[in-house]
Amino acid sequence: MPSEFLVRTVTGLEDLTAAEITEAGHLVVDVTKRQLVVEAAGPIATRLADDLFAVRASVPDPGRTKAGLRQAVARLTAHLDPGVPISVTASFTGARNFSRHDIEDAIGERLGVPYFSRRHGAPPPGTADLRVTLDGKTMWLGVRPQPTPLHRRAWRKATVVGSLHPPVAAAMARLAGIRPGHVVFDPCCGAGTLLVEARIQEPGARYHGTDVDPAAIRAARLNDPDIAWRTEPGEPDRMLANPPWGVRLPADAVPSAGWPEAGRLVAILGEGQRLDRRWRTVAEYPLTVAGRHPRIVVALIGK
Ligand SMILES: C[S@@+](CC[C@H](N)C(=O)[O-])C[C@H]1O[C@@H](n2cnc3c(N)ncnc32)[C@H](O)[C@@H]1O
Q: How many domains does the chain have?
């Protein structure tokens, strides 16, 4: 019996995540900003999604007004008994005359169990995380079946300034099309997020990463001791790169001129950043992540 899930994504990764989930045999029934609605054929294993919630209730989207919100919340929660303390995170698309906190408090106050607002910090262990979204058509209420958000990775023991959001790294690895036997190189690996995520997707390739900063190499080793850190292969088949994009930089601030030539390069660049002229961009994916607007660039050498 298929069951319904809300799959939450980074803005800009909706279609790539839908493709990953469809390939795994599930049915994506709707795609809106940051969200897929999925009829699952079994457990959903996704590296690209930010988080996953089992749908418990849905009603038509109430629109803009607070009165409409109150009525919708009453219908949404009518047959719901979480049985344990709850926290609620809400989000919506479009203009509304209420805030996400109004939604969270309205749900929390109706359910008859202790409610912890996330405004006051992390809720205690044993609390069920409810997720409410209004996508313009439907108001959804889901419960996170897993104990922690999907984007939180068990392998991540160390980070550096600018460490990449793991689902974004997973999307880049997918775009790289890494196959068994490929040699894959990250020339500015930081704490190693790109190669660690790539290796989880394709353990049959060989991975090399390096960085000017020795502290980054130490962090990367903690995250995956089995990758060849601080080494640079002569002729990689694929390259993954996340150069620093802390400030608006001139094009030559991307250190790509010193990178070896690879069969395909997948880089994430900040606003205003460009690869050097050897690389021909074949696809771009604009994202919004942590309030920034980088883009994933897929590039080939020459002509
Ligand atoms: C945005 S961080 C990479 C973060 C990494 N993807 C992660 O998730 O941890 C950029 C990295 O590039 C490194 N870097 C800057 N200039 C470099 C250069 N010329 N060659 C190699 N690495 C460089 C920095 O030390 C930093 O660790």
A: 2
